Structures are given as structure tokens and as C-alpha cells.
């Protein structure tokens, strides 16, 4: 009789132990989820973390973060009437390659893989032909600053120079440098596609700006610089 009671007690103790472990595991999972939620909420709107404390962020792992060599820049060739290089002395940008770009699957402007190149939207204007060129570029990659990191610092009156494939150069004076919330950026594109001076050829530069959203994986603003040709 005492043996049966002892065995029953052991069974009860075993199941009680397993139940306690299950409860402890559930509490652990809940704490992890709560911590993650708190962490990402805390990071919302903070400066983007660098690889000194976090891993590289998808999908930017495929970005190229090495400056093109002088030879690669020199050998870059485009059609005579297309933009080839961009120079902005005020920002220390000299002969940045201007790559033809289209739209992404999400119908957004595409950008070059190399963060030191800029992208010219092929459906926008061409230098010397009276329209508005739309040029975008990265403000940085997972590890280093990109070609347009300092674009918000460009001032009215600063000069942007676009060189065509045939060597002709066109200079544009900055009239507007504006930060637009990401939620309003699509609507602002209708303005960005126009010249700041009616009837004059122009160029609009675009990059990410503002604070970094850890949850959304992007910056919360877009920077638009609008400049008109100097005739």
C-alpha cells in the first residue's frame, strides 16, 4: 500500500515539475516579445545605428560602398545627350557618375547600387533640352556615408554642374532645399518635377533625410533640392 502511494506521489511531482517548467518557458517568451516591442519603439525616430553595434540591414546588404576608381570614372561613357557626371563643389562632389535608372517594382524611383553614384530617372528631362532632370542618390549605406549625405546643407545660390556624354557642361543654381515628410513625398513629386523658375530648364536632386525608423527600415523624410539653369 505504501509503495502505491509513493509511486502516485512521484507521478504527481513529475507532472507538477513539468507544469512549472512550461509556465517558466511561457513567461520567458512573453518577456522576450515585450522587450523587442519596447526596444523598437525606443529606436523609432533615432539616428540610424552603424555596424559598430548592429548588423547590416537588409536589403541594403547588396549596396556597393567603395568609391569608383579614377579609371572607372574616366571610362564611364553615355550617349551624347545624356548626363554623364555631376559636380557640386559646395559639397565636395566631383564627377559623380550619373547612371540611367527606371522605377522599382513598387513604382518608386530606383537608385544605383554604388552609394557614390547618382541615378538619373530616364523619363525625366535631359541636360540642354529644356525639361527637368530628376536625380537621386543614397545618403549612406550600412557602413559609410553616401554621395548625398550632406545634401541638406546645400544653400540657395550653390551651383550644380551636369556634364553630358558629349562633354558639354550645364550649370544650375539652387533655389530651394526642402525636407518633406515621407508621408507627403509622393504628393510633392509633382512639384519636384517642375522648375523652380517658370520656363527655365532645371534639375531636382532627391535623397533620404530626417530620422531613421527602425520599424519601417527607412528614413522618415525625403530631401528635395531644386535648381534652375544659369543662362
Q: Quick one: CATH superfamily?
A: Sortase
What's the domain count? 1
Radius of gyration: 27 Å
Which geometry do the CA atoms define?
globular
Strand order, largest beta sheet = 1-2-3-4-7-8-6-5
Could you name the CATH topology? Sortase, Chain: A
Give a description of the structure.
- The protein is α+β, with helices and mostly antiparallel strands and 231 residues long.
- The chain has one domain (60-229): Beta Barrel (Sortase, Chain: A).
- The chain is 25% helix and 29% strand.
- It has helices at 2-43, 70-74, 182-192, and strands spanning 83-88, 93-101, 118-121, 132-137, 159-164, 169-181, 202-213, 218-229.
- An 8-stranded mixed barrel has the order 1-2-3-4-7-8-6-5.
- A hairpin with a 4-residue loop joins strand 5 and strand 6 (169-181).
- The protein is globular, with a radius of gyration of 27 Å.
- It starts with a helix and ends with a strand.
- 28% of the residues are buried.
Secondary-structure map with pairings?
Elements: H1 2-43, H2 70-74, E1 83-88, E2 93-101, E3 118-121, E4 132-137, E5 159-164, E6 169-181, H3 182-192, E7 202-213, E8 218-229
